[in-house]
Write a structure and sequence with these properties.
single chain; alpha+beta; two-stranded antiparallel sheet; two-stranded antiparallel ribbon; 9 helices; 13% strand
Length: 229
């Protein structure tokens, strides 16, 4: 994949690569199970080129996996990074290039044979190429409409409505519970490039500086009259 490719071309290339790899895996499965008798028939059935399928059955890896032994990190370490990227993105706080490189550098210290090799931005781009299910996109700061309603008047109105509802329906305060889990980012939010799963690109992700502190809070509380008044 040439570095001169536009982002649209790169996205198209990665999408086609994923689709072809998936089709090749299905073709190999059908051949190994005996569902399809010939390589050519499996290639036609799954719409994949005959030669790559034949090479894969001979144990020859795909191009982006062929030089694993020369990579700075092991396959298991790269898989761990991929899982971390997917997990943080699913939680709404994806990591950026700097955080990816920091984690990769920590792994690289464990690989004594690669001590002189450096984790660079070029390595990070190569990592995304080797894992086409991931991509970089711009995060978004808090929507203006959400930020606008987060004020004292709105919060006060909510608790006044809660109080009147409880009084109207004769709900005692001892029957009010709150269980919640949320995340907080301390620092100034800004839009920047983050790493996410390709299939979830359209989701809105939080923007934050790499130096900001992130805190996950779990709350389990029992309301009393004194707390709500």
């Amino acid at each position: 994949m040439s570095p001169q490719m536009t982002k649209a071309k790169r996205d198209e290339f990665c999408s086609k690569t994923l689709q072809r790899e998936e089709a090749i895996r299905h073709a190999i499965r059908d051949i190994n199970s005996g569902a399809v008798k010939s390589i050519r028939k499996a290639a036609e059935l799954h719409n994949v080129p005959y030669s790559p399928l034949q090479r894969r059955l001979k144990g020859i890896q795909a191009r982006h996996n062929a030089h694993t032994h020369r990579q700075l990190l092991s396959e298991a370490q790269e898989k761990s990074l991929q899982t971390h990227i997917e997990t943080t993105a699913a939680q709404g706080f994806p990591i950026n290039y700097k955080e990816l490189m920091d984690r990769a550098a920590a792994f690289n210290k464990e690989n004594l044979c690669n001590q002189e090799a450096m984790i660079s931005r070029k390595w990070a781009r190569g990592f995304l190429y080797r894992h086409p299910s991931l991509l970089s996109c711009f995060s978004r700061v808090l929507d203006h409409s959400r930020a606008k309603v987060s004020n004292r008047a709105t919060v006060t109105q909510y608790y006044e409505l809660l109080r009147s509802t409880m009084v109207t329906h004769d709900i005692p305060f001892c029957h009010v519970y709150n269980m919640d889990e949320t995340g907080f980012v301390f620092g100034r939010a800004q839009s920047h490039k983050v790493l996410v799963q390709r299939e979830k690109k359209r989701r809105h992700y939080s923007g934050h500086n790499q130096d900001n502190e992130k805190v996950q809070l779990s709350l389990n509380a029992l309301a009393t009259k004194s707390l709500l008044q």
